[in-house]
TrEMBL record, chain A:
<protein>
    <recommendedName>
        <fullName>Autoinducer 2 import system permease protein LsrD</fullName>
    </recommendedName>
</protein>
<comment type="function">
    <text>Part of the ABC transporter complex LsrABCD involved in autoinducer 2 (AI-2) import. Probably responsible for the translocation of the substrate across the membrane.</text>
</comment>
<feature type="transmembrane region" description="Helical">
    <location>
        <begin position="227"/>
        <end position="246"/>
    </location>
</feature>
<feature type="transmembrane region" description="Helical">
    <location>
        <begin position="24"/>
        <end position="45"/>
    </location>
</feature>
<dbReference type="GO" id="GO:0005886">
    <property type="term" value="C:plasma membrane"/>
</dbReference>
<feature type="transmembrane region" description="Helical">
    <location>
        <begin position="306"/>
        <end position="326"/>
    </location>
</feature>
<feature type="transmembrane region" description="Helical">
    <location>
        <begin position="66"/>
        <end position="96"/>
    </location>
</feature>
<keyword id="KW-0812">Transmembrane</keyword>
<feature type="transmembrane region" description="Helical">
    <location>
        <begin position="258"/>
        <end position="275"/>
    </location>
</feature>
Automatic annotation (TrEMBL), chain B:
<dbReference type="Pfam" id="PF13407">
    <property type="entry name" value="Peripla_BP_4"/>
</dbReference>
<dbReference type="GO" id="GO:0015762">
    <property type="term" value="P:rhamnose transmembrane transport"/>
</dbReference>
<dbReference type="InterPro" id="IPR050555">
    <property type="entry name" value="Bact_Solute-Bind_Prot2"/>
</dbReference>
<dbReference type="InterPro" id="IPR025997">
    <property type="entry name" value="SBP_2_dom"/>
</dbReference>
<dbReference type="InterPro" id="IPR013459">
    <property type="entry name" value="RhaS"/>
</dbReference>
<keyword id="KW-0732">Signal</keyword>
<feature type="domain" description="Periplasmic binding protein">
    <location>
        <begin position="28"/>
        <end position="282"/>
    </location>
</feature>
<protein>
    <submittedName>
        <fullName>ABC transporter substrate-binding protein</fullName>
    </submittedName>
</protein>
<comment type="similarity">
    <text>Belongs to the bacterial solute-binding protein 2 family.</text>
</comment>
Amino acid sequence: MTDTTNTPHRHIPDRLDNPVKSAVFSWETLLVLVGVAIFTANAFASPYFLNEWSLSDLTFNFTEKAVIALAMALLIISGEIDLSVAAIIALASTLMGMAVQWGVPTPGLVAIGIGVGLACGAFNGFLVTGLKLPSIVVTIGTMSLFRGLSYAILGDQAYGGYPADFSWLGQGYVWWVISFELVFFIAAAIVFWFVLHRTNFGRRIFAIGNNALAAQFSGVRVARIKFVLFCLTGLMSGIAAVMLTARLGSTRPSIAQGWELEVITMVVLGGVSILGGAGSILGVVLAALIMGLVTFGLGLLNVPGIVMSIFIGGLLISVIALPILYRMWKERRQ
Amino acid sequence: MKLITTLAVTTALAAVLAAAPAYAQTRIALVVKSLGNGFFEAAARGAEEAAEEIGDVEIIYTGPTEPTAEAQIEVVNSLIAQQVDAIAISANDPDALVPALQRAMQRGITVISWDSGVAAEGREMHLNPSGNDLIGNTIIKLAADHLPEGGDVAILSATATATNQNIWIEEAEKVLPNYPGINLVATVYGDDQSDKSYREAQGLISSYPELKAIIAPTTVGIVAAAQAVTDAGKIGEINVTGLALPSEMAAHIKSGASHSFAIWNPIDLGYSATHIAYALATDAATAEPGSVIPIGRVGEVTIGEDGQAAMAEPFTYDASNIDEYSSIF
């Protein structure tokens, strides 16, 4: 008879953490709780909040920015950043407006918007990966360049006269109160979730973000993947430009001014490490929802926008600080 | 535990009941380009005055932090959700707000624009504070009055896309030939930001040594330009004029950096917009060309063929009356 109790043996778990426990204590759970709290507060604070059209209008406050945030999340996880996304919207929208004047129909306009976005993203990607320039410097530059081109083309003028079926992309509803923008965002979120969390490509993005050099020596084509991510961010900015232009029905060079910071706020609030290497698509989606809920809820109460931006800033800092404070408190107790 | 639950529920219910608005009132939303601007604060005071006069009106004074069309659309969406009776808006963009405002009109909300207009299909009527031609003429005249010998003048505007500033500059350029000797050398844009406007004014002072006047048809720009002239020690050489709030310019009138400037009364503007919005929302008047709408103590406006109406002429402020008005707005 063998006595196993005396042999020293070590239990090696399949996973590092208990999956249930890690799900309960995750960032996403915290975001869900914050979201539910804000939703409940909104419902109590305003009699107009729980109305299907109010909730539908609410989604327009964040869908376009959230579409860009999906791609931005991948880029930030890989350790890069793109500050030119709002400027890409301006340039894509301006060139679509120009095409309208030449009588280009809706499919052509959409192709131009997406194509310009992709080209701008590829340009950023080339400067960062081809010329090995830091992405923050490159995209501050292209931010001025792309928007500057819009101002050069349009000045104080506006392009309008977009066809009616084009407007549907920004104002139309697929079914009942479910807008096309919302449907597109959900579909895109599922695709991005699959790419980031269920493919080799996604694993490589995390590897690059954690240690680009180690990833390089492990056979990951770092530069190529980063280039693809810049193209992807440009592409999503182009799509956002199509939807925003369709929603506004006109183009001015000041379109989407300041959106780059709101997109990055969504990504960071969603739990993506600004240093790269960590994050999830679910978190970004939840953060987008929370920002929509906060701005719309405070809007219903006619809270001045100044208070609103203070609130968003406070939310961002507290949601990021809470887990760190919790960890410090736990370490001190041990 | 049960007691706590009961308490929590009743407190929440009480909060909801307390927050519920009185439905009998006519709710008029005064939407401005951005909050924290003295001009719009004054307009809101006028709106409150009109609301008190009419009696049965609640004013919702609101606007975004950033003067952008996208942020203003979010404000309009929340007003649609609140089912207000009327929206009176000073728009950041004449075209981009049209779809959102059309949706408001489809849901039975009266929409008018004032100060900075919306394209005709996005509102029922537009209230101009004054005639654009009158303003364009006034800003040149203000400079010319103090330049009997003529001289170089420059314009410091807000953003290159600001609707009303561009129209006024266009009108000003039209009347220039009526003022022989007045030479417009440059038009620059300070984006309605104090620091950028200040730098642009400094640029004008150093680029044009013969400059005799800076015309800024924006309250942020004129204050920044007056400060730049003061800091450069050019008081008496360069006269700063344009459109501004008396309270913000009082010090510069007294120092001599500005001889005079003009503005319509923003209090009257908010007051008139509220009267018109109320009349249209309660069907006491219709927004058709030719229809005459009484606007309380200011008089009445007549809607023109283009769906626009002009309130009054801009008023000139100088050392003789600045003290009286700077305490008002």
